[in-house]
From TrEMBL:
Name used for this protein in its record: SAM-dependent methyltransferase
Molecular functions (GO terms): methyltransferase activity
InterPro entries: SAM-dependent_MTases_sf
Top-level taxonomic group: Bacteria
GO BP annotation list: methylation
UniProtKB keywords: Methyltransferase, Transferase
The keyword Methyltransferase appears for this protein: yes
Length: 178
């Protein structure tokens, strides 16, 4: 099922599409959602979605729709994670890194739920933006972020060649139910 498109919404990540079926029934968090390409994918799959970004203009067409919660929040302003204490069947983040939030994102995955994370890794600076090491994952950093809390289903640290060359780390990890 193709996700509905919003204003110039880019297609969902191949990684997220590949593992979307692992997310059980329940709410999905699309963190730093931008135009909500992944929130739209999961909404089309029947999940209620929570879309979080500091600028919600890219999801204005979704405001007030059934099964869609929008939350405007600057995730890097030093305030506590705005969804602390809430659990999600799926937590999705792509092309975004705030290391202080990683523990909160792992904690937000409810039992049986799935973390789908994909962002830039070291080596990206030679290919283009971002170039700041603060926004590039160190080798194995996503694995370390989930160690002891989630079970890794799939992990990659590689250079992609499509749609644009990029060095990425990506993970699909599940919180055990018992």
């Amino acid at each position: 099922m193709a996700p509905p498109s919003g204003p110039a919404a880019p297609p969902p990540s191949d990684w997220i599409c590949r593992f979307a079926g692992h997310v059980p029934t329940g709410p999905v968090l699309d963190l730093a959602c931008g135009r909500a390409r992944h929130g739209r994918l999961f909404r089309a799959r029947g999940h209620p979605v929570t879309l979080v970004d500091r600028d919600l203009s890219g999801v204005a067409d979704l405001a007030g729709r059934d099964g869609v919660e929008t939350l405007q929040a600057d995730l890097e302003d030093g305030r506590p994670f705005p969804l602390a204490g809430r659990g999600f069947a799926g937590v999705v983040a792509t092309n975004y890194l705030s290391r202080p939030l990683l523990p909160a994102l792992v904690a937000a995955v409810q039992p049986g739920g799935v973390l789908l994370y994909e962002t830039f890794a070291r080596g990206q600076a030679r290919l283009g933006r971002p170039t700041n090491p603060a926004f590039l994952l160190a080798p194995g950093e996503l694995l370390e972020a989930v160690r002891g809390a989630l079970t890794v289903v799939a992990y990659e640290d590689r250079t992609l060649h499509r749609p644009d060359p990029a060095c990425v780390q990506r993970i699909c990890a599940v919180r055990p139910t018992a």
